[in-house]
Amino acid sequence: MMDRLLRRCRIKSRLFRECLAEFFGVYILILFGCGSVAQVTTSQNTKGEYLSINLGFALGTTFGIYVAKGVSGAHLNPAVSLTLCVLGRFSWTCLPFYVCSQLLGAFLAAATVALQYYDAIMDFTGGHLTVSGATATAGIFSTYPADYLSLWGGVVDQIIGTAALLVCVLALGDPRNTPAPPGLEPVLVGAAVLVIGISMGSNSGYAINPARDFGPRLFSYIAGWGDEVFRAGHGWWWVPVFVTCVGALLGALLYELLIGVHHPDSEPEEAEDLTAVLQQTVELDGMQPKFDFFKENGKDGIFSITSADTG
Amino acid sequence: MMDRLLRRCRIKSRLFRECLAEFFGVYILILFGCGSVAQVTTSQNTKGEYLSINLGFALGTTFGIYVAKGVSGAHLNPAVSLTLCVLGRFSWTCLPFYVCSQLLGAFLAAATVALQYYDAIMDFTGGHLTVSGATATAGIFSTYPADYLSLWGGVVDQIIGTAALLVCVLALGDPRNTPAPPGLEPVLVGAAVLVIGISMGSNSGYAINPARDFGPRLFSYIAGWGDEVFRAGHGWWWVPVFVTCVGALLGALLYELLIGVHHPDSEPEEAEDLTAVLQQTVELDGMQPKFDFFKENGKDGIFSITSADTG
Amino acid sequence: MMDRLLRRCRIKSRLFRECLAEFFGVYILILFGCGSVAQVTTSQNTKGEYLSINLGFALGTTFGIYVAKGVSGAHLNPAVSLTLCVLGRFSWTCLPFYVCSQLLGAFLAAATVALQYYDAIMDFTGGHLTVSGATATAGIFSTYPADYLSLWGGVVDQIIGTAALLVCVLALGDPRNTPAPPGLEPVLVGAAVLVIGISMGSNSGYAINPARDFGPRLFSYIAGWGDEVFRAGHGWWWVPVFVTCVGALLGALLYELLIGVHHPDSEPEEAEDLTAVLQQTVELDGMQPKFDFFKENGKDGIFSITSADTG
Amino acid sequence: MMDRLLRRCRIKSRLFRECLAEFFGVYILILFGCGSVAQVTTSQNTKGEYLSINLGFALGTTFGIYVAKGVSGAHLNPAVSLTLCVLGRFSWTCLPFYVCSQLLGAFLAAATVALQYYDAIMDFTGGHLTVSGATATAGIFSTYPADYLSLWGGVVDQIIGTAALLVCVLALGDPRNTPAPPGLEPVLVGAAVLVIGISMGSNSGYAINPARDFGPRLFSYIAGWGDEVFRAGHGWWWVPVFVTCVGALLGALLYELLIGVHHPDSEPEEAEDLTAVLQQTVELDGMQPKFDFFKENGKDGIFSITSADTG
């Protein structure tokens, strides 16, 4: 019965389905990620530590990808979507829809975290929602640079961090290198986020994702932290939004220049044959996800990037 | 010889076998989970920390599922069993049997933890078994809200936590999304419990499972902690029992509405053909667990949910 | 050239090969396990913490199994070997050879740890090798009970701990339940050791393995810690040696009674057919390890237990 | 369009491609590894702890291997390349090219870490770049022995550590033992690095890799830490460079003598047949990485070691 009710809600537009998946994937990412910061902050390190926050964003990424990957390819990051467009593996037409869905998911997840930790935040701050000071809580939602960090240092930090992310993601999805085993890509992308947090987190909180940073920042602006969230760190807010895109492009360029383009060609005729054989195998194997993998064999594809109409 | 003796104990009732598996699975979950709290509490954080407790429940879940999954589908959580009934993937008739087995497993595991840590608890408390105070030990068995948490805040906390669990579990088991690799579902569900503990644990101890909370609470009531275990936190005990069920249903609804129902239909004829082919493959592959996976291909199934007689 | 020299050393006796593998597997287990205790002890918690020790023994177990599993089945634990004999899955004739190899591996690994940490131990203790006190170092090698633990409490602790280990190991290797994916059994058995250390480690250091405890204890007796290593804890030494065997048998009994014996029979004729098909598949798949898995399909086997001549 | 531009940069020399992969793999390893030390050092343990550093090098190794393995086999360590030459599994002609690429990658990664943490290092040290003292930062780049460690003790430490690494790596890649599942070798080699850091890290910082230590040391020498980086620890610098090679050879010898050479021969005719069947399967499976695995079946190979022209 419930099944039938649910089926009435089915949406036939492929792009809409994909946007829902991107929305929900980022929502899960931020729910777990910012949730872990809220837990560590409001419990004053008694119920977690810096490593918990790294694990929170890493596993948040993992489960965000499990939620979305079969539907939208699980970019979950505007900088990733943009890079895939530049690489010709995603459609420019879909880009704005994906980005908006990602931002909306991050915004609503930040609201959910604020709801779940409302009592804790009120108790910890005494009701004063501040961006800096001993009981600052704006850091639950978005990133702020360390006091010592110059603007230029922050730009370098975000470029290197996002480039490292893209190198890892492209390597994990490159079928001619050592791709992640089918079904474990979400875990390994999560591990990449973990190691970035462990090795590149102390300067400015490893945003490496415009949606992860800007959506929750917007929420904290509206919800009572005020315009200090945009003014803090000499107007830090735009660095995680725009510089991460530069970093992502740089990382993709590096991976392609140093590894990707040098893979020896398989001759086209043979490749076609192979695809036919593969398709057959896949049908026999019955594991749908493997399918996406092979479909893109011919164009150096990141794993299971599907799109409404890749131009 | 021992083999033959054991075989005499074989039980032919499918439901009874499944209930034994649910019992033993929850027993293992709580043995490791509550055991890790006992270790951290009685050693006063010298032999573990908050993260150990998160890992204890996460790996407890993992091994509880390994113990039960091939037999009963490893719900290990009344809120999960209930949700599967509502989704039409589990039989209402079996529900009470599963729930009782889960509660019994949790109760006996709590007793085992108390037995294993008897000397430690006596040494730590000086023999005073209390629910609050510096040497409180009731928290070994069941969850209690933080001082700052309002009842309404606790309800929201348990709804969000259990909803997040169900979203992750349904995504991991959705064969048309990115399902967990066969044989690794228990690890990934454990990872979901880990991240919930890391990001949603400080408010009220992430019960997210009525059996996990109520079985041990009942044990602590009987074993000497007294009726304070039910009165503490303004009568907190019912929140993890009933509110988690609401959260589980909400999470399932969200996953289905945002992801599940929108998967494009495979046409029925083709699907049947495919099933035949799959079955063939599975026989060739010889990995029994894969079988469950595919059997349910047609109905959006959570992984390997089997039941005595799904109505 | 080196290849040829090496090949001259080939040993043809299957039992001898297996004993070498058990020796080397336990050596690796203890090298990493006791090494992590040495690191945490001599660095006074600055280069690790209790969780490091848990990870050290867990990953030590993982790599010990990777080293030995393809040759000897990687028991790496006399209590496991004994239990497999009682279950009829390992030969009583081979048992003493396996146990001696395991003990020798643990002894030599303890010596290696002492060699690697010689300077550190001398610096930390000022040359006084003691079993108790602020600079006690005997705990690097073998387990000692907490001050509060009664003998009876220690017996219960070791029974529950070793029983939990066997339940996990038997579940992971039960082909009719949810077996671990081929090639990942070592990781999952390591995870079982991790969670036992996290939830059952504070009472007496989770020996759960006679060789892990007695081999290094013997070394520390000879190497200068004196007979206090046998007298400490009211003569604790025999508990990890003998009581763990009782625990292992209890765990195996529980798993078989609650899960193992109730698996529905496949009829014998069909099973034979299936085996033939499987063997064919395995040849096609070319993954040798899978082979062991299926060979034992018919007798409820723990994964890849091979033996010189199982009676 | 970008695709076409990239394709113009394609390099046809196999050795050059492999050197690029070794370069980039070590770069990623050191970027994450030394980055995690920089984070823990400059944040004074508030944004990480010793375990973070262990995880940083472990996951750095994992992603370094994912980046390079499909192209060069991902040695990422001159001691590993050398050992493979001695074992006859890698070409002596290629050895110097691999080693130089690895050193260059480590050098440039150290420079990148210094760039990313420039502000942090300046703030932490007040601009005084020192090798020892309360604000020492040379340890971000390369290893230094603990004060108590004798030279002989350091030599033993590096021999045991690197031998342990090789035993684990050879076991994981031995197709006649329990090889790591295809696609997860990078994770498991990372786990080996993790456990070595947890159990053998406190004496001298587990270099176990000449490139990991010497490349960054050279950078720190040039970048302002001065010749103290070579004089510290009574001229410690050569131990991680040369002694690790001895350790690697010892580890390989031990694995081969105790496990490797004793694997029973498959008769040659049968083996050939099997290879044919495998190749067929592999084509059906379409997972290129598996291919490398089997190609070397006949010569006891470490996983996917490919070389320009193995003599």
Strand content of chain A: under 5%
* CATH overall fold name of chain A: Glycerol uptake facilitator protein
Shape descriptor of chain A reads globular
Please tally the helical runs of chain A, counting DSSP H or I stretches of 4 or more residues.
13
Largest interface: A-D, 58 and 68 residues
Description:
The structure is a homotetramer. Chain A has a single domain, classed as Up-down Bundle (Glycerol uptake facilitator protein). Helix content of chain A is about 65%, strand content about 0%. The first copy, chain A, contains 13 helices and no strands. With about 300 residues, chain A is mainly α. Chain A has helices at about 1-10, 15-40, 50-70, 80-85, 95-115, 120-125, 150-175, 185-200, 210-225, 230-235, 240-260, 270-285, 290-295. Chain A starts with a helix and ends in a 16-residue tail after the last helix. Chains A and D meet through helix 3, helix 7, helix 8, helix 11 and helix 12 of A and helix 1, helix 2, helix 3, helix 5 and helix 6 of D. Chains A, B, C, D: One of its GO terms (cellular component) is basolateral plasma membrane.
